[in-house]
Design goal:
6 helices, globular, about 60% helix, mainly alpha, single chain, 434 Repressor (Amino-terminal Domain), about 90 residues
Length: about 90
């Protein structure tokens, strides 16, 4: 589950919050584009996670059951990076 869906906001709303258009959010989610570091910083702030967590640093050890989906999403992003695909958000 993507962070956008988990947070129950639209791509358009996230785009407004971080200063990019809905199309860019869609491309991040579909692995067609990688956000710039400045955009990653804004995304991390919106979702109250670190950039490292967005990029897949190990954060799963102390997650509550409600946070397991976030850990899975982060793991998926890490796997995409390892495969040379661009992560989604």
């Amino acid at each position: 589950m993507s962070l956008v869906r988990q947070a129950d906001i639209t791509q358009k709303d996230l785009g407004i919050l971080i200063g990019v258009d809905r199309t860019s959010i869609s491309k991040y989610e579909n692995g067609q584009q990688t956000p710039e570091v400045a955009v990653l910083t804004k995304i991390a702030k919106v979702f109250h996670v670190s950039i490292g967590e967005l990029l897949g640093e190990h954060v799963e050890e102390n997650l509550s059951n409600n946070d397991k989906d976030l850990g899975i999403a982060i793991s998926n992003m890490r796997d995409m990076l390892k495969k040379g695909r661009k992560p989604y958000v």
